[in-house]
What we know:
Elements: E1 4-11, H1 15-27, E2 30-37, H2 40-49, E3 54-57, H3 66-75, E4 82-86, H4 91-100, E5 104-107, H5 114-157, E6 162-167, E7 172-175, H6 177-182, H7 187-190, H8 195-198, H9 210-217, E8 221-226, E9 232-241, E10 247-256, H10 258-304, H11 309-336, E11 344-346, H12 348-365, E12 369-373, E13 381-383, H13 385-406, E14 415-425, E15 428-436, H14 441-445, E16 450-452
Parallel strand pairs: 1-2, 1-3, 3-4, 4-5, 12-14
Antiparallel strand pairs: 6-7, 6-10, 8-9, 9-10, 11-13, 14-15, 15-16
Amino acid sequence: MVSRHLNVLIVEDSEDDVLLLKRHLRQGGYLIHCGWVDTAAALNQALSEESWDVVISDYSLPSFTAIDALFMLQKKGLDIPFIIVSGAIGEEIAVSAMKAGAHDYVMKDNLARLGPAIERELREAAMRRDRYEAEEALKESERENREISREFRALLDNIPDSLTLLDSSMQVVWSNLSTAKLLNCNPDELANHHCEKLWTDCSARGDDCPVRKSFISCQVEKAVIKANDDRTWGVRAIPISNRHGQVVSVIKMASDITRQIQLREEASRAGQLASLGELAAGVAHEINNPINGIINYAQILADQFSEDAENQEIVQEIIDEGERIANIAKNLLDFAKARPEFKKPVSAEDILAASLALTKSQLNRDGIKLIIDMNPGLPPVLAHLQQVQQVILNLISNARYALNQKYSAADPEKIFHIESELCSTPGGRLCACLFWTRELVLPRRYCPRLWIRSIPPNRVAPAPASA
């Protein structure tokens, strides 16, 4: 027989009975480490100083009882097998002791039951410890999972993109705070709602919906969706599969890419304008040399026909037109020059005049009547010359295109009106140049006038009042 170690605490006032118990335990195959107490104080000290496998207690001692000893164990929170061994204990008292928490009772004249009782209670105590440790481990795991879930939720709620988890019936399972803000509600209010009933302004519905496609294809699906509020959304539908490979849900991630698309378009236009500027500079340079030759030869002819009034007038016309072409070439070169990184005072009249020098002949050829009403007292404007000139050229080009679309030939209403005025605002005086046409889509949509205002850096211009 293999001996087993046993730390046993005996609560007994009779030394003979203690020796009897020790001998019986050794005969049962235990290597015992035995403690012996006979008072409540000694029991309290023994329980505090050492770890015991089992407590064996007589029922009645001079200063306290087994029930008192049992309550002391319970008060300390110790789950140790407590077995009463007594020479004279009635059945009623034994039942009361068991109800109070004693694990078993053995009569002193039947110690053969003690060994099996100890074995059984040690096994059950070990099972209780294992169960308790498993429960504590489970509670700790649940606490950790709740903490991870809280942190993960906080992370998802701080993502600016809209995130929504949808089941196979297109019902919302979960959504982040950005989605709730987008739909003007609380995240909890979105659960169990059908996707298409929430995003009513979505252009991708039915079979075009990337979420539906992802459920069918079991792959990530992408789409660019235009909303009714003119915003553009980049949508990714990410499938989530179970262990059998079946898609059970899909994460819908929507990003507002309106600004990105605008920036790409602006970058493309900037590249086109840069190429146009290089082309304009090349054309102006190629024109400049021959036109200077024409002007010089015309000057020679003017000297030769100084006495001939009729030919002198023709030659002067050649010189004037040549200088006009040279001035156009100069304006093209100025427009194509690299833009300075700083602002400087410029005249609104000079900017407009330089812009019209490049476009006035086209306006005349298209039969567009140009009305210019510039305030002669306008102060200089602190601005980037080329940038403002480019804006004005674009406005003139847009107006010319719109008028030609509406009036294919000359018409009394084919009028392009340019005027200026000086505005006083709380932030100072502003020079407002107004470009407008009659009864066309652009002015009707954005007010009858388009305003160009100079503002200090890091300031926002106030919205123009409707005219």
